[in-house]
Amino acid sequence: MLLALLVYAFAWLLGQRLPLWALALLEGGLAAGIGQRLGLSRWWAWINLAFLPALLLVQHLALPPWLFLLGFVLVALVNWNSVFERVPLYLSGDRAVQLLGDWLDGQPQALRFVDLGCGTGGLLVRLARRFPERHFVGVETAPLLFLLAWLRCLPLRNCSVRYQSLWRADLATFDLAYCFLSPEPMPRLWEKALGEMRSGSWLVSNTFEVPGVAPQHSLPVMVGRQTALLFWPMGRA
Q1: Do 139 and 115 touch, CB atoms closer than 8 A?
Q2: Of 59, 100, 124, 147, which sits 20 to 30 A from 162 (CA to CA)?
Q3: Which DSSP state fits 166?
């Protein structure tokens, strides 16, 4: 609503009566710009830009009601964890993947890696291709994201995705557990890692800290919403 008022005020100052589609594009561009400044993922910019023009288009097309239901279902299948776990969809960017891969270069060859909430599987696929001798596992419960990640990992022999809650994953079988979640689950995840992970293994979080527990070291990312990769060793004083 505030963005709409700003756009109308801008048009009034110009002394022009802009058509509705032009106002929608202007407001979408403003929303996309604000989203980028707030550190939202790049794909959010396209959503913000296209949202109002798409609404105008839908009004003129007289689409059947079932299409709106289908749209709602698709959104629910993607944002499943936002509702049930309070964990929105965050995708690890190129720099985070590169930094994590460089760090893995110095780790044992037999390392087993799990991505707790792997989303679309982008990080898993890239790391699995870079390190064909290691095994990478992702867990995901958002149905549409799981399907996409599973299909992307299917051609890779060292990469697999499970339809499983991160809370049911047995962390004892992994040497590194990676997550890009939200502040909400981090205390509980820390307790789970302490109780299950072996000495010498690692918990790595993109951006979100464990309250009251300083990481042993961090690698700055500083791209969009991502700030740093945070590393906690398990079973070490």
Answers
A1: yes
A2: 100
A3: G
Q: Is the pLDDT of residue 16 over 60?
A: no
Task: Summarize pLDDT for 157-173 with one digit per residue, the tens.
Answer: 999 999 999 999 999 99
Distance CA 14, CA 9 (A): 9
In contact, 156 and 133? CB cutoff 8 Å: no
185 φ, ψ to 5°?
-90, -5
Name the maximum alpha-carbon separation found in the chain: 69
- The per-residue pLDDT for range 74-107, each reduced to its tens digit, is 555 555 555 556 567 788 989 999 999 999 999 9
CB 126 within 8 A of CB 97: yes
204, two tokens: 């790595």
Q: Which two tokens stand for residue 70?
A: 């289908």
Amino acid at 237: A
